[in-house]
Amino acid sequence: MIDKFNNTNLKSITALVDQFGRVHTNLRISVTDRCNIRCFYCMPAENVVFRPRDELLSFEEIVRFVQVVATMGITKLRLTGGEPLVRTDLPLLIRQLSAISGIQDIALTTNGLLLAEHAAELKSAGLDRLNVSLDTLQESTFEKISRRRGIQKVLDGIFAAREAGFSKIRLNAVAIRGLTEADVVPLAQFSRDHNFELRFIEFMPLDAEQQWNENDVLSGPVIRTMLENHFCELLPAERTEPSQPAVDFCFADGRGRIGFINPVSQPFCEDCNRLRLTAEGQVRNCLFSTEEWDVRRLLRSRATDEEIRQLVRDSVSAKAQAHGIGSPEFQQPARAMYQIGG
């Protein structure tokens, strides 16, 4: 267990502001590229080659990096993968990260399959929030997407997390034309019945097999119309954080809240405040970036904190104005979602 990091000079170090004036306060940390399912929008079906264990950042290296960027204004962390719950002793990392001065919020994105057995320990370790992937309530559709079985385990994990004391549980559904239209209303009904916040996410070009086509995107506006036709009007909700990727709505009948993350039809790049750290220690300034900055080399060569800060500044300075999906210049990243971190 590390001692709590003393961030006494936090305000004296320049914040992470890019050339477009965006202030970066949010870091997504991939703790592993491994996963226990094979969702086609994220991973290949078979013959996946994972990083050797010694190439992944250790907990000590992750903590060191967060200690440094916390002095630059990073206040929120999200742990991702792959599937982060396959990383052994993850609660230990959460406990260490929550002890760092300046870190105000730690969230976890999971597919939910292992959540039931880990929920209580995650809560005890200091995890604040959970995002659980739930694209469907039907086993047959779950199997088409994940190429594995297990929807009941996911549902059991969601309710176990609530029982463990998590009050902030968000459900994320990737929306895919020709596949998940029939799931839109049932997912919304499930969320309304159980008081979960649901967010629909447009299918993005991050699949390992690079079969993505814009025609496969079931857009947020289309889903909103489907929900209003079935339930009632959706009223714009207060935007608590300008940088949040979702546009949120409340059902007019007062039963529930729903969000839409529309990176394809309605990009939100102008408000982006996120950086990413891959499992093997590459800093990325955008999910769709084609460039990375190798902080693992610095962490393993006894670099100073200032050298690490400069690498992060370089990454932020190079951030593009937008991801460019739909433009002639857009290039799908060579690495898939599981290799970058969700």
Could you explain the architecture of this structure?
- The two termini are 27 Å apart.
- Mean pLDDT is 92; it is low at 1-12.
- It is built from ten helices and twelve strands.
- The protein has one domain (24-340): TIM Barrel.
- With 342 residues, the chain is α/β, with parallel strands linked by helices.
- It has a twelve-stranded mixed β-sheet.
Short description:
It is built from 10 helices and 12 strands.
Named CATH topology: TIM Barrel
Strand content: 15-25%
Uncertain parts = 1-12
Percent range for helical residues? Answer: 25-40%
Q: Any idea what the radius of gyration is? A: 19 Å
- Reading the helices and strands in chain order gives EHEHEHEHHEHEHEEEEEEHHH
* CATH homologous superfamily classification: Aldolase class I
CATH top level? Alpha Beta
Number of helices: 10
CATH architecture heading:
Alpha-Beta Barrel
Distance between the termini: 27 Å
- The number of distinct structural domains comes to 1
Q: What profile does the largest beta sheet have?
A: 12 strands, mixed
